[in-house]
């Protein structure tokens, strides 16, 4: 078997085993196919100059809410931003950040955001001095719904009270005046991230796609649907790979001859959806070192790049995805390498880097997730796909719904019925109307758009989610069909395309300097 890089250079299996050889061969490869030109009057009117954009780079980290990272952004020394006035929102003010409600005090920031503990006492948001949170807060399908509405977790859409974070993550019967879920970080803890957020464009209404964990949220990034899946235990794919009804983003890219790659450290995120065992032989999966060289101009940077952190698949020593209890400054240092590689290379003038988080990780956020339109027609726990049609197209008959490769009790069907007991009576029948659906976004997460095209010191308040990244790519690189942008599902077709964060004609941030972040001086990772 031979292997191809993003270009057409052929590698032998023996070379694939060595990252060093893979780097050398892929850099020497032939040019990748260029994206088709997008030249329509409608697109030009919506985003003048967008044809100047040649590269989109997505860095998706793990498990933090907007408030946990940027809740204190407007209070940072020298910040160009301000908080909304008490009892008001930001409106159209693009220097306003809807974060925590705080005031300066002798001890730093004193914040008024609270959640109830089991005894009825209030637990306030606080600056967490530890960058390594233990234990990892609950961010499961069930846990997240209870965090958003503790008493009525199936009513999160109609009544998103944001009242269960402490009670879900604290032992019953005790009080925890500084529960880690209520902790936030400041400019002192995350100076590189704060610097990016204060210079480029952010969105304080960017939400995860699902009120749940990593795998279903990353599925929305890949396919604009989780096709019924609810648990990260499903992340190991079946032998033939997952096959959502409308395919994946990379299918759209391939059909339109738009080049793409997933650069990784231990495992590429796209491997969760490709055939089992494909990681070493998929031509689009390349080591992080190849990205750094491509960004420096040695080889061809594809039109669309996913640049993945180290997920700790082999050892926690190399994990830098920011999942607790890993030191969050490890992730900051990794993202700094990626951003600086692009900023200091020849592609800075025609690239956009999106820095985003897959889901909130169980950390508190005060903004209620809004309804998602339109709802995903595949209901929670009623997985459907093209794995073995026509049977697999029926509710609950898709791959790895009632079981998964891990063979444990944590299955999508078990998660669905735990939150919706009525579903257990007939898992493949009509989905109970009074149970939680895929009709609401997940908890708000940090989002920064770093680019020469970014509007400087700009806060968007437009509701967006992971399918907005798909909408942006579809708008930028795929020619419209019948007057509409190409898409996978109704979710990405109707998603905001994030264009308000950019000025493609003016490139106002082209000379903006970018700092660096080193690995933590004292790593607190256990």
Q: Descriptors for this entry?
A:
globular, 526 residues, 21% helix, two-stranded antiparallel sheet, eight-stranded mixed β-sheet, disordered N terminus, alpha/beta, single chain, 14 helices
State the strand order across the main sheet.
12-11-13-3-14-15-10-16
Beta percentage is 5-15%
Mean pLDDT: 90
Report the uncertain regions.
Answer: 1-44
Structural class: alpha/beta
Instruction: Using the CA coordinates, give the radius of gyration.
Output: 22 Å
Based on DSSP secondary structure assignment, what is the total number of beta strands?
16
Helix percentage: 10-25%
Global shape:
globular
What string gives the helices and strands in order?
EEHHHEHEEEEEHHEHEHHEEHEHEHEEHH
Structure description:
This protein is an alpha/beta fold. It has helices spanning 13-16, 19-27, 41-46, 66-70, 141-148, 165-169, 191-199, 214-223, 249-255, 288-295, 328-343, 412-419, 466-477, 490-494, and strands at 3-4, 10-11, 55-61, 102-105, 108-111, 114-116, 122-124, 126-127, 183-184, 201-203, 260-264, 285-287, 304-307, 351-357, 447-451, 458-460. The strands form five sheets. It has an eight-stranded mixed β-sheet, sandwiched between helices. A two-stranded antiparallel sheet has the order 1-2. It is globular and about 60 Å long. A hairpin with a 2-residue loop joins strand 4 (102-105) and strand 5.
């Amino acid at each position: 078997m031979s292997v191809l890089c993003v270009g057409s250079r052929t590698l032998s299996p023996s070379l694939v085993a060595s990252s060093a050889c893979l780097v050398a061969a892929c850099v020497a490869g032939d040019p990748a196919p260029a994206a088709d030109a997008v030249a329509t009057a409608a697109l030009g009117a919506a985003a003048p100059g967008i044809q100047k954009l040649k590269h989109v780079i997505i860095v998706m980290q793990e498990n933090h809410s907007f408030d946990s990272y940027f809740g204190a952004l407007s209070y940072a020394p020298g910040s160009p931003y301000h908080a909304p006035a008490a009892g008001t929102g930001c409106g159209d003010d693009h220097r306003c950040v809807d974060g925590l409600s705080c005031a300066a005090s002798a001890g730093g920031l004193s914040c008024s955001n609270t959640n109830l503990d089991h005894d009825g006492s209030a637990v306030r948001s606080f600056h967490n001095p530890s960058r390594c949170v233990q234990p990892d807060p609950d961010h499961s399908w069930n846990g997240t719904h209870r965090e958003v509405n503790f008493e009525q977790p199936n009513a999160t859409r109609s009544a998103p009270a944001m009242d269960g974070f402490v009670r879900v993550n604290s032992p019953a019967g005790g009080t925890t005046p500084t529960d880690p879920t209520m902790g936030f970080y400041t400019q002192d803890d995350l100076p590189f991230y704060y610097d990016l957020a204060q210079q480029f464009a952010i969105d304080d209404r960017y939400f995860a796609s699902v009120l749940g964990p990593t795998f279903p949220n990353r599925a929305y990034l890949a396919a604009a649907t989780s096709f019924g899946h609810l648990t990260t235990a499903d992340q190991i794919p079946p032998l033939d790979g997952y096959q959502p009804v409308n395919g994946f983003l990379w299918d759209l890219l391939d059909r339109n001859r738009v080049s793409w790659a997933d650069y990784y450290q231990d495992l590429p995120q796209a491997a969760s959806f490709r055939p089992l065992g494909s990681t070493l032989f998929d031509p689009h999966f390349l080591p992080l070192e190849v990205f750094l060289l491509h960004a420096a101009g040695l080889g061809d940077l594809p039109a669309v790049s996913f640049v993945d952190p180290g997920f700790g698949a082999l050892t926690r020593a190399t994990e830098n995805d920011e999942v607790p209890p890993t030191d969050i400054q490890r992730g900051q240092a990794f993202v700094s390498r990626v951003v600086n590689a692009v900023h200091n290379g020849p592609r800075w003038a025609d690239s956009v880097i999106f820095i985003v988080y897959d889901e909130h990780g169980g950390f508190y956020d005060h903004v209620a997730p809004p309804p998602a339109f339109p709802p995903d027609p595949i209901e929670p726990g009623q997985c459907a796909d093209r794995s073995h049609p026509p049977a697999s197209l029926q509710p609950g008959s898709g791959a790895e719904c009632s079981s998964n490769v891990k063979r444990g009790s944590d299955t999508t069907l078990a998660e669905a019925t735990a939150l919706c007991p009525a579903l257990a009576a007939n898992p493949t029948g009509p989905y109970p109307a009074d149970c939680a659906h895929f009709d609401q976004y997940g908890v708000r997460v940090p989002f920064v758009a770093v680019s020469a095209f970014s509007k400087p010191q700009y806060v968007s308040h437009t509701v967006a989610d992971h399918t907005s990244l798909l909408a942006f790519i579809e708008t930028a690189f795929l020619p419209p069909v019948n007057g509409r942008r190409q898409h996978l599902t109704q979710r990405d077709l109707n998603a905001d395309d994030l264009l308000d964060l950019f000025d493609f004609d003016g490139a106002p941030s082209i000379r903006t300097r970018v700092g660096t972040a080193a690995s933590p001086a004292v790593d607190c990772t256990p």
